[in-house]
Amino acid sequence: MSEQADLFSSRDPESEAPEPSAWTVSQFNERVKSLVKGAFGSFRIQGFVSGFTRSYSRGGHVYFELQERESAEEAQAEAVVNLIMWRGVRGKLESAIRELGGDLDDMQVYFQVNPDLYVRSGRLSLIIEDIDVEASLGAQKLDRERLLRTLAAEGLLEKNRSLPLPLVPLRVGLVTSVESAAYHDFTKELGLYGLAFKIFTLDARVQGAEAEVTVPAALEEFGRRAQGLDVIVLIRGGGSRSDLAAFDSEAIARAIAASPLPVLTGIGHEIDRSVADELSHRAFKTPTATAQFLTERVESFLNAINERGREIRLMAEGLLREERAELDERGHRFQRLVERGLSRLREGLSRRRALLPRLSRGALERATLHLKTRQARIAPRRIMGDLGRRGKILNERSQALHRNSARKLNEVLRSISHREERLKLLDPVRVLERGFSITYGPGGKALRSARDAKPGATLKTRLAQGRIVSETIKTEIEDET
To answer: What is the pLDDT of residues 41-76, one digit of tens each?
Structure first.
C-alpha cells in the first residue's frame, strides 16, 4: 500500500500540500498521464497500420490503430495501440505519406510518437510526431522477400512463365484503371501499326488497398474467359516505389500464378521490380514497352510468313521454269522428228518422180525392140497390120501410163501434204495454243482419266503459256455408257 502511495503521490517533496485521502478519476488519469509521459517521452514504434485510409479521407485529425502482427496478411492482432495524427502534423507529413503510397493500411510503418492519455475517457494514445520513411520501406522489402521465398517454396514463381506465349497474341485482356494515362498509352501504341488487336478491358484500381481486391478479381475473370484470349496485360502508370506496394501483395501474386493465360506486367517503374513482376510471364518497365513487345511479336510472325511465302513463290517459279524448258525441249525434239520424217518422204518421192519417166521410156523402148524383132520373123504384111494395131495400143497404153503416173504422183504428194498437216495439228505445242492443256500426275505421266488422280495428289497442268500446280480435292467420273 505504501508502494502504491509512493507511485501515485502527487506531492512535491518540497510542498506541504497533504495527499488526498481518495483519488478522483480525473486525478488518477492525470497522474497516469504524467507518469506515462515522464517515463517514455518521445520514442519510435513500429507495427501494421489499420483504419488509416478511412479516417485520413475525412480530412482533419487522423485516428487509427497500430497492430502487432506476424505479417500483413495475418488477420489476428496480438496487440493494438491507438494512434493520433493531429491536423497540423498531418500537413507536415503529407510528402512522407505519399512516398509510402498514400494508403498505409496493412503496411508496416515506423512512427516517432509521444504517449498521451485523454483524461476524460482514460484512453491512452500515441501522438504521431514523424514517420521514418526509410525504415518503413525497409520493412516492406523484408515482407516482400519473405513472400517471394514462400511462393518459391510452393513452386509458384515460374508457374506463369512456363505457360506458352502465342505467336500471334492479338486477343488481349487488359487489367488497369480505364481512364488512366497507362490505359491511353498502351492502347495508342497498339493502334499505331494497323494490326488486328482486340482489347478486352476490366477496370481495376492499381494503387492502394482496393488494388489488392480488384486486380485479383479481374485476373480471375479473364481466367474464366481464357478460351477467347491469348494473353493478359496488367499495367499502371509511373510513381514512387511506395506506389507499387499493392503489387507486392500476396493476393495479386497468387492470382498471377493461378492464371491459365500468360500475364505481362507493365507496372511503370524504371528501377524496382514488384512481386507481381517476379511472378509474371514477362515484366516491362512501362505500359508502352508492353504494347511494343506485343506489336513486335505479331510483326515478327507476319514477316516470317511473308518470307516463307517469298521462298515458296521463288521455288514455284523455278519449278515452272524447269518444266517449261523441259516441255519446250520436248516440243523441239518432236518438231525435228516430224521435219526429218517429212524430209525423208520428200526425198523418196523426188527419187521416185525422177525414176518414173526413165522407167516408162525404158519399158517402151524394150517393147518396141521386141516387136521389131518379132516383126522381122513374121510375115510382113499380116504381121505389120497386127503390129500397127498393137503399136497403137502400146502407144495409147504408154500415154495412159504417163497420165496415170502423173496422177498417182499427185495423189501421193497430196497424201504426204495431208499427213504433214495432220502431224502439225498433232504437235502438242499447237494443241496447247488452241486452248487445250496437259495434266501430269505425281509421277510425271500425262493423265487420261480422272481415276488416275487420287484425292490429295499434287498435279501439274501445262498450258500454252505457263504451268499450274494444284492439289486434287475430289474427282468426278463421267458415265461412259
So the answer is: 899 998 888 888 888 877 789 999 999 987 666 667
> Given this model, what pLDDT does residue 15 score?
44
* pLDDT of res. 7: 47
pLDDT at 375: 62
pLDDT-derived band at 443 (thresholds 50, 70, 90) equals: confident
Q: Whole-angstrom Cα distance, residue 251 to residue 211? A: 10
User: Which residue in this structure is represented by grid cell 482486340?
Assistant: 198
C-alpha cell of 308?
516463307
C-alpha cell at 336: 525435228
Say how far apart CA 211 and CA 204 lie, in whole Å: 7
| 80-116: pLDDT as tens digits | 999 999 988 888 888 888 777 677 887 888 899 999 9
Check: CB of residue 70 under 8 Å from CB of residue 111: no
Q: Is the pLDDT of residue 14 over 70?
A: no
Contact call for residues 361 and 405 (beta carbons, < 8 A): no
What distance in Å separates the CA atoms of residue 70 and residue 65, rounded to the nearest whole number?
16
Q: 37, 112 in Cβ contact below 8 A?
A: no
Q: pLDDT by residue (tens digit) across 184-225?
A: 999 999 999 889 999 999 999 887 778 889 999 999 999 999
Most distant CA pair in the chain, distance: 212
Amino acid code (one letter) for 92: K
Q: Which residues pair with 109 in a beta bridge?
A: 47
Which residue, chain included where needed, has cell 488512366? 180
Task: Provide the residue type at 440 as one letter.
Answer: Y
Q: How far is CA 157 from CA 49, 51, 143, 160, 268, in A?
A: 28, 32, 16, 8, 21
Chain-centre distance of CA 415, in angstroms? 70
Distance (Å, whole) CA 146 – CA 407: 117
Distance CA 474, CA 226 (A): 38
More confident residue, 262 or 370: 262
**Grid cell digits, residue 234:** 496488367
Query: Are 276 and 243 in contact, with CB atoms under 8 Å apart?
Result: no
Ramachandran area for residue 204 (φ above 0: left; ψ -120 to 50: alpha; else beta): beta
